[in-house]
Amino acid sequence: MPLETARDGPVSIVPYDPSWPRRFEKERSQLQSAIAEWVVGGIHHVGSTAVPGLAAKPVIDILAGVHDLESSRACFAAVARLGYLYARYRPDEMHWFCKPHPSRRTHHLHLVPAGSRRFHDELAFRDYLRSHPRDAREYAALKRRLADRLGHDRNAYTDAKGSFIRARLERPPAGEK
């Protein structure tokens, strides 16, 4: 059942937690068992919790590449059995789920066509931050400022990060590794 009107909890940025990669691996294993027949581009840890040392919302973001949005609807029941709730968020780009509830999230699942720009960009931005620690620190500072200012409006918070992300995907700074 879609979460059209569910109340979101506030955005909170916390220091990096070294348990995040293990939490992802546990979830990846369960997802792989449940939805392998729909996954074509792998199941990836993305977002800030996937970048060692980066402050983040304490929510594990998971990207699963699928053939297309229409055929991947067939796995919704399997995802729901793992405790994920579907929400109509950017439905032209992905199927988005949260777990266990919008007011207390531990995981986000993004089912995204593996050939799409969004799929590529999610992985590219994660990899960029992993290899550019100065920009990762700048991104953490930006997220803290935005959470303080926009923490009760998740869409505004997410949209406000867009120009930073686009700038790094389009023209990474030269020289830093």
Primary descriptors:
alpha+beta; single chain; 7 helices; disordered N terminus; 177 residues; 5-stranded mixed sheet; Beta Polymerase, domain 2; 42% helix
Description:
With 177 residues, the chain is of the alpha+beta class. The protein has one domain (20-168): Beta Polymerase, domain 2 (2-Layer Sandwich). The chain has 7 helices and 5 strands; from the N terminus they run H-E-E-H-H-E-E-E-H-H-H-H. The chain has helices spanning 20-35, 69-72, 76-81, 117-131, 133-150, 154-160, 162-170, and strands at 39-46, 60-66, 85-87, 95-101, 104-113. It has a 5-stranded mixed beta sheet, sandwiched between helices. Helix 5 packs antiparallel against helix 6 (154-160). The protein is globular, with a radius of gyration of 16 Å. Residues 1-6 have low confidence and may be disordered.
Order of helices and strands: HEEHHEEEHHHH
CATH top level is: Alpha Beta
Count of folded domains:
1
Low-confidence stretches: 1-6
Distance linking N and C termini? 44 Å
Radius of gyration: 16 Å
The proportion of residues forming helix, as a percent range, comes to 40-55%
The amount of beta strand, in percent, is 15-25%
Strand order, sheet with most strands? 1-2-5-4-3
Main sheet summary: 5 strands, mixed
CATH-derived topology: Beta Polymerase, domain 2
Q: Based on DSSP secondary structure assignment, what is the total number of beta strands? A: 5
Quick check: average pLDDT? 90
Number of helices: 7
CATH superfamily: Beta Polymerase, domain 2
